[in-house]
Amino acid sequence: MISVIVPVYNVEKYLRACLDSLVAQTQKDIEIILVDDGSTDRSGKMVDEYIDKGFRVFHTENGGLSAARNYGLSQSKGEWVMFVDSDDWVAPEFCEIPFREAIKSGADIVAFEVCVVRDEKKVSKTIAEKPRGVVDKETAIDSSGIVAWNKLYRRSLFADIQYPEGRTYEDLATTHKLICAAEKISMIPDCLYFHRDRTGSISNSKKIKDKIDAFISASERCAFLRNRGIVKTKAERALVSCALTLMIWEKPSEDKEYLNARRVLDDVKETPKWLSKKRKFVLYLFKKTPRLFQALCNVFIRWRAIETT
Question: Long-range CB contacts (< 8 A, 24+ apart) of 219-223?
Fold first, then answer.
């Protein structure tokens, strides 16, 4: 059986599309676990409407996405686990196709493709050059994506792994651990998940805490992989990118993470080719003219403070 875990928090505008897509699953041996994470809108009442459709519904105090996922895992009964964010939706074969691949290949994790939706228009993220079929762990870490919701997992992988509660960017802190715990990983080309890139989501957050959480998760990820002899370019890229973002968003301080971010950028010897032109310029200022860099950051911080009030 597959346990599909859906944390729910204040998404009444999008929730029904998500839940109806799960009702339409072609794989029948599944359980849908809805964890209402203390919603203050109609989401809590809406999930109760799906009890009659066989969904298992739980209401908890607000603890954040990680806590809701962990709670869903604790209630799950399936040998396999999948995750869905409640403002997204999935294809009818969301469960069936990865499960079929897992049985065929003997994989513990099956990763599939995601379509990003902006302004109700689908933008495929599929990359033709991506590896397919059974891949090694380094390839999976680099190419399968850090998100939780484009994968089918064997439930036993979570025996000693949980999502970090009280922190955002929990996928960045966790997915690589699950991949390293797996004996076999397979990647398939099917686009089975539709992700809304919308204002108000964590990935588009303007909260400094989220920038700090992203840097902490990226730092932990790199340390974990280095300790296992897996140092992949994209993991290092994520760390540099998160460090640069934190330096731009935060005022100079003796805060531990601010100082760690500065050290990461100090260790960058050459401007990375993969950075955007704007970020290359910002990094150049950080390296060559620290005062001008900080002056520009201060302007950005003041502008952000005005925009968010």
Answer: 219/260, 219/264, 220/173, 221/172, 221/173, 221/176
Residue 204 burial by Cβ neighbours in a 10 Å radius (0-12, 13-18, 19+): exposed
- Tell whether 142 and 237 lie within a shared domain: no
The answer to whether residues 240 and 251 belong to one domain is: yes
**What was the pLDDT predicted at 306?**
44
The total number of structural domains in the chain stands at 2
Burial track 208-224 (b if 16+ CB lie within 10 A, e otherwise): eebbbbbbbbbbbbbee
Verify that 209 and 149 share a domain, yes or no.
no
Residue-wise pLDDT tens digits, 101-117: 999 999 999 999 999 99
Say yes or no: 131 and 14 in one domain.
Answer: yes
Q: Is the pTM of this model over 0.90?
A: no
Provide the domain limits for residue 171. 2-203
pLDDT tens sequence across 157-209:
999 999 999 998 999 999 999 999 999 999 999 999 999 986 655 454 568 88
Closest Cα partner for 173 from 159, 185, 181, 163? 163
Which H helix or E strand runs over 141? helix 137-143
Q: Are residues 199 and 210 in the same domain?
A: no
